[in-house]
Design a protein that fits this description.
By secondary structure, the chain is an alpha/beta fold. Helix content is 21%, strand content 29%. The longest helix has 19 residues.
């Protein structure tokens, strides 16, 4: 008998299984449902459990420690919030809620009150999946290349939610757990056959910052039942097939691909069974919730995990609503994080500072670092291996190639050009001859100008539209023409300096240093 007692709210299709398992543990105190006939049947089967038609009767019962919510998803937020405000620990069947803002509110409320808030992602507690995750974490499978999941059946067909929200949360939860990261790109498509507004079949593609990819295929219009998760590593491949007998649910395939004369040749191996102790996943999940109440330890599937799954679900739904458009997820926890347009491509291994904006059809390539508060216009390419400082503005149709470094507050005008190889030929590979180009703080590069590689543009220099830079440019220099020559000096504010070297706009004063340099007066 558990010393902690729970009430199950909603005793329908899934709620009845929760009732059964909490009764098995000895923790079932009360069953709450709006249907009197349903409660009467449960009272016959579980005579020691109390029943209630009113949720307020549950919340006011001091003998109840935890609330188990197994009601339709649209009711989850209000029921969970009321339970937390009544100082009850809460378990919510998937999905946690439908709105990310509501999830964040529940997370903060549970933290403030020191309460457990757990989501019912059942398969995280399946002994087979626990073993599979252990194999991934210990490196038995090697580097994970891709994962796919099929959850298919004929029925149970719902009308309150589509197949994505009904079947896919478990698969998303498992995939996020195996990868240890959140996806940065989501593409989803669906088919509506029984009802014009409810998808019966969906396919969701996920791309992760590490390069791992995954897809999830779910359907309740399928000729046979299939519940299969496949994980492909570079050492071994694993198959979790939940429709098989227990001893065959988890199989490892130590297949290898060997190279012979520059041709990949597959070397197949026999499947290996993995021994796992058998137990009911839901029973283990229910026990885990009670253990978390007792110890105060965060659940394996806490509300933060539920929020991560919810973000992927919402991104998938958005992609479906837009006919399979790519949706970019910003995985940063900083609310002032970068804004990346859906048509832009951001490769894995990039770093983008907060408040930076990347617009239509731009491409940020691997190992590129972009600072905070930057603005990359349409059709901009940056990288690979490029560093762009804070506050830079790069206008449309500019490519910042390997070898180019922009310090803070650099302005690149529309269609200006950087080169990185001095004497390029189409038939000669000279990427090993890249010459470094440095654009110093505050410099302006006008529209259609060209910066020949291997040169440095000084701080706050101003390169006129169409000019061609073939040599180093001093700080504050105004450069015009082809090839560009210095025709004057420019203030930090952008005004051309008169002969007195005192800016007529901001009154900042400068002085010459030697024959070719200018510095601000102290």
């Amino acid at each position: 008998m558990s010393e902690f007692k729970v009430a199950v709210i909603g005793s329908g299709y899934w709620g009845k299984n929760l009732v059964r398992n909490y009764d098995r543990i000895g923790a079932l105190k009360m069953i709450c449902d709006t249907n009197e006939e349903t409660l009467a049947r449960f009272k016959e089967e579980y005579p020691e459990a109390e029943t209630a038609l009113s949720y307020s009767d549950v919340l006011s019962n001091d003998g109840i420690d935890g609330i188990i919510i197994a009601t339709p998803a649209e009711t989850h937020f209000n029921l969970a919030k009321e339970a937390l405000l009544a100082d009850k620990h809460v378990y919510v069947e998937k999905p946690l809620v439908l709105n990310e803002g509501e999830a964040e509110e529940l997370i903060m409320l549970a933290k403030d009150r020191g309460l457990i808030l757990m989501v019912g992602h059942l398969l995280q507690y399946h002994p087979i999946f626990v073993k599979l995750r252990e194999l991934v974490e210990t490196g038995d499978l090697g580097r994970i290349n891709y994962i796919y999941s099929n959850r298919l059946n004929l029925g149970k067909i719902r009308r309150e939610e589509n197949i994505l929200w009904s079947f896919a949360p478990h698969d998303i939860s498992m995939i996020l757990s195996l990868t240890g990261e959140e996806p940065n790109k989501v593409i989803a498509t669906g088919g509506n056959y029984l009802h014009r507004h409810i998808a019966d079949v969906t396919t969701t593609h996920l791309e992760f910052p590490s390069g791992t990819k995954a897809h999830i295929f779910v359907s309740w219009l399928h000729p046979f039942k299939e519940q299969k998760l496949v994980v492909v590593g570079d050492k071994k491949m694993a198959v979790f097939d939940d429709t098989q007998p227990w001893e065959d649910k988890l199989l490892l395939y130590p297949h290898k691909v060997e190279w012979e004369k520059n041709i990949p040749v597959p070397n197949k191996a026999d499947a290996e069974r993995v021994e796992v102790h058998q137990d009911e996943p839901l029973f283990l999940e229910c026990k885990h919730f009670l253990e978390c109440i007792e110890t105060g330890v965060l659940p394996r599937t806490d509300a933060e995990e539920g929020l991560r799954v919810l973000k992927v679900l919402n991104a998938s739904q958005e992609s479906m609503n837009r006919n399979g458009a790519k949706v970019l997820l910003n995985t940063s926890k900083d609310k002032n994080s970068a804004q990346i347009h859906e048509t832009a491509f951001v490769d894995a291994g990039t770093t983008i500072g907060k408040n930076t904006k990347i617009w239509h059809f731009s491409h940020v390539m691997k190992n590129t670092t972009i600072g905070e508060n930057c603005n990359l216009g349409q059709n901009v390419v940056a990288g690979p291996d490029v560093i762009i400082g804070n506050g830079c503005k790069i206008q449309n149709n500019v490519s910042v190639y390997k070898g180019v470094t922009l310090e803070d507050d650099v302005f690149c005008g529309p269609s200006m050009v950087f080169t990185n190889v001095f004497n390029p030929r189409a038939h000669v590979n000279r990427m090993s001859e890249v010459r470094e180009t440095l654009i110093k703080k505050g410099a302006t590069l006008g529209a259609n100008c060209t910066i020949v590689c291997g040169n440095t543009v000084g701080k706050y220099a101003f390169i006129g539209a169409g000019a061609v830079i073939t040599k180093d440019v001093p700080d504050y220099a105004l450069m015009l023409g082809t090839p560009a020559k210095r025709t004057g000096w420019v203030c930090e504010c952008g005004e051309i300096l008169p002969q007195s070297l005192e800016c007529v706009s901001c009154n900042k004063k400068y002085e010459k240093k030697g024959a070719t340099d200018l510095i601000p007066c102290k």
